[in-house]
Amino acid sequence: MTSAIIITFCSLLLIAYIFDITSSKTKIPSVILLLLLGLVFRQFTNILFFTLPDFSFILPILGTIGLILIVLDGALELEFNNSKLGLINKSFFGTLIPLVLMSFLLAYFFHVFGNISYKIALINAIPFCIIGSAIAIPSVRTFNTFNKEYVIYESSLSDILGVIFFNFIILNNDYGLNSFADFGYQMFLIIMISIISTICISLLLSKIDHHIKFIPIILLIILIYSIIKIYHLPSLIFVLIFGLFIGNLDELKKFKWINLIKPNEIIKEEKKLKELTIEAAFLIRSMFFLLFGYLLNISEILNTHTFIWSFTIVAIIFIFRITQLKLSKLPIYPLVFIAPRGLITILLFLSIEVPNKIPFVNSSLVIQVILLTAIIMMIGLLTYSKKEEKDTVKSQILLE
Questions:
Q1: Angle at the Cα of 106 (from 103 to 112), degrees rounded to 5?
Q2: CA 63 → CA 33, 192, 251, 315, distances in Å?
Q3: For the structural domain made of 2-399, what CATH number should be given?
Q4: Domain coordinates of the chain in residue numbers?
Q5: Whole-angstrom distance, CA of residue 210 vs CA of residue 189
Q6: How far apart are CA 287 and CA 282, in angstroms?
Q7: By CB count within 10 A, which of 78, 210, 223, 239 is most buried?
Q8: DSSP at 362
Q9: SS3 state of residue 394
Q10: C-alpha atoms less than 13 angstroms from C-alpha of 111 in its C-beta half-sphere
Q11: From the CB of residue 220, how many other CB atoms can be counted at a distance below 10 Å?
C-alpha cells in the first residue's frame, strides 16, 4: 500500500513537471491540466475500487505554504528603485480600486438575489475579485520585461490587498472611525514586525556557514508568517517586504547600516535561495491543484445551477479589467487576459465559516470561475503568441 502511494505520488508530480515545462509552448495554463489530472485520477481510483486516505485537511495547509512561496518568488524577482515607482503606483492603484469596487458591486448582486445581509454578501464576493498570483506569475514568462513586472506586482499586491480587505470585513462588526484606527495600527505593527524580522533573518542568512542553509530560512519565513496570521495581521506583507529586501540589496548598499548584515555575502546566496524557492513553489503548487482536482466531482464542474452566476462574475471581472487598463494607460493587449482566479480564491472560500456561507456560492461556482478565467487567459496567450510570430516575420521581411 505504501509503495503504491509513493509510486502514484511521484508519477503525478512528474506529469505535473511535464505540464510546467511545456506550458510556455502549448500556452495551456498548467492549473487546468493539474485539475484535470487530479479529476481523472479520482475516476481511475473509483473504477479500480482503490481507496486513498482522506487528504482534504491538507488542502488549506498546502495552499498557505504555496501562497507564501509564490509571493516570495515574485518579490525576489522585482527591482525596487526610483525607475520602478511609476510601475509600482500603477500596480497598487490598478489593483486596489478595481478590487474594492468589484467586491462591492458583486456583493450587491449577492445581497439582492440571495436575500442576505450585505456583510455576508461582501465576505463571499471578495475571493472572486482577487487575481491568482499562483496562476498569473508562471504564465507570463514570455512577456516583455514591463508586462511581466506589472503582472508580478499586480498579482502579488492583489493577493495581499485582497486578504487584508477580506480580514477587515470579516473581523469587524461596524466600520466606523475606531475600526479604521485599529486597521491603521495593525498596518503600522505589521510593517515594524516585517522590518525587524527581515533584518534578523538576513543577519542569520549572512552568518550561517553550515551546508544546510536555505531550508531553515524558508521554514523561519513560514513560521513567522503563521505566528503573525494568528493575530489576524496581514502576514503576506512580511513575505513581500522580505523578498523585496533580499532581492534589492544592491540598491540598499548606499545605506551604511546595511553593512551590519554583510550584504555582499547575502547577494552571493540570493540566487540559490531564489532557485530553491522556485522549485519548492512548483512542488507545493502542483500538489495543491492536483489534490483540489482529486477532491472535485464532475457534477460540481458541470453544475448548471451556477452557470449564470459564474458567467456573470467572469463578465464583471473582464469589464473591470478593460476599464482599469484603459484608465491606467496600460497596454490592453495582452494584459487584459491575465486576470485568473486561483489558489487565494480557494483558500479564502474554504476559510469562510458556515454561518457566513451563501448556498449558491459553493465549490461549483468557485471552480467554474477559476476554469473560465484560466481558459480565457489561455486563449489570450495563444493569440498573443501568434501576433508576436507575425510581428517577427514582418520585421524579417522589412530587414530583407
A1: 135
A2: 18, 26, 32, 26
A3: 1.20.1530.20
A4: 2-399
A5: 33
A6: 8
A7: 239
A8: S
A9: helix
A10: 14
A11: 16
Can you read off the three cell numbers belonging to residue 399? 530587414
pLDDT, one tens digit per residue, over 103-117 is 999 999 999 988 899
Tell me how many degrees the CA angle 340-345-351 measures, rounded to the nearest 5: 175
Q: pLDDT tens-digit profile of 378-387? A: 888 888 765 5
Q: Determine how many CB atoms are found less than 10 A away from the CB of residue 239.
A: 28
What distance lies between CA 1 and its chain's CA centroid? 35
Say yes or no to pLDDT of 398 above 60: no
Q: How many CA atoms lie within 13 A of 22 on its CB side?
A: 10
Q: Taking all residues of the chain, what is their mean pLDDT, rounded to a whole number?
A: 86
- As a whole number of angstroms, the distance between CA 293 and CA 42 comes to 8
- Please return the burial class of 88, using the count of CB atoms within 10 Å of its CB with bins 0-12, 13-18 and 19+: middle
Is this model's pTM higher than 0.90 or not? no
Instruction: Give the integer Cα–Cα distance in Å for 42 and 49.
Output: 10
Site of grid cell 484608465: 327
Count of CB atoms within 10 A of residue 174's CB? 8
Contacts of 113 (CB under 8 A, 6+ apart): none
Report the alpha-carbon distance of residue 310 to residue 229 in Å, rounded.
31
Per-residue pLDDT tens over the stretch 290-330: 998 888 888 888 899 999 999 999 999 999 999 999 998 89
Helix axis angle, 214-230 to 59-77, nearest 10°: 110
CA angle 311, 316, 317 (to 5 degrees): 95
CB 353 within 8 A of CB 316: no
Helices (H), 126-176: 133-139, 145-171
Q: CA-to-CA distance for 166 and 351, rounded, in angstroms? A: 10
Question: SS3 for 50?
Answer: coil
Burial (Cβ within 10 Å: 0-12, 13-18, ≥19) of residue 176? exposed
